[in-house]
Design brief:
This protein has 210 residues and is of the alpha+beta class. 33% of the residues lie in helices and 13% in strands.
């Protein structure tokens, strides 16, 4: 407080002991000391860190931790597993691991979730959100593919953390009463230009869309 003396009632205002105690206590709790730090660390989502972002995540409704399937850890025959001499046998435990998002990734997820919370869930608005999310990664779009059914299409490989966030949270809007699914074309099996990492003649099939 700027004038801590004004908080004392008159009968104690001239007591040196009480005044000294109040001033020392004020030095310990004066909010001016940490006001800017609190604003930067908690209040301002653009600069918030650590527990400040955790608070914002709770406000918009998205957690920092996601479950991600372990990749290239165990011996196996399908994508996501390793050959002999490069992996270990699975003990049967869950292949999923809890993965905490770093501050920069979590901040972006929070901002996108905030946009998703207030979006008018129509195809044009959802596609605008997808452009904000993946504009530099490749084509991602929302299309209707049946009666009361729609699909999110990603024409590129999602990173494991991206896939987990999308599938496990409500980051992407879900129009009321609409059945949703997600589709990622297999680039190495789809015919197209080599610049897009697609397959050439004789090795890839035409992408039939949705």
């Amino acid at each position: 407080m700027i004038t801590v003396g004004e908080t004392l009632i008159s009968q104690y205002a001239n007591s040196p002991v009480i005044c000294r105690l109040v001033r020392r206590f004020d030095d310990c709790i004066d909010p001016r000391t940490d006001k800017q730090r609190f604003y930067d660390t908690v209040w301002n989502v653009s600069t918030a860190q650590g527990f400040g972002l955790d608070i914002w995540g709770a406000i918009v409704g998205i957690e920092r931790e996601v479950m991600i399937s372990a990749q290239d850890e165990y011996i196996g025959f399908a994508q996501g597993f390793t050959p002999f001499d490069n992996g270990v046998w699975s003990t049967g435990e869950s292949l999923e691991r809890r993965y905490p998002l770093d501050d920069n990734t979590y901040r972006r997820v929070i901002m996108l979730k905030a946009m998703s919370n207030i979006i008018y869930a129509t195809a044009p608005h959802i596609n605008r959100l997808l452009r904000e999310m993946f504009g530099t990664r490749g084509r991602a779009y929302f299309v209707k593919n049946g009666t009361m059914a729609a699909r999110y299409v990603f024409e590129f490989y999602l990173l494991p953390v991206e896939r987990s966030i999308i599938r496990q949270s409500d980051l992407l809007p879900r129009p009321s009463g609409v059945l949703l699914d997600f589709y990622e074309p297999e680039a190495d099996k789809t015919f197209g230009y080599i610049e897009a990492n697609l397959a050439p003649f004789g090795e890839g099939a035409f992408f039939m869309g949705v």
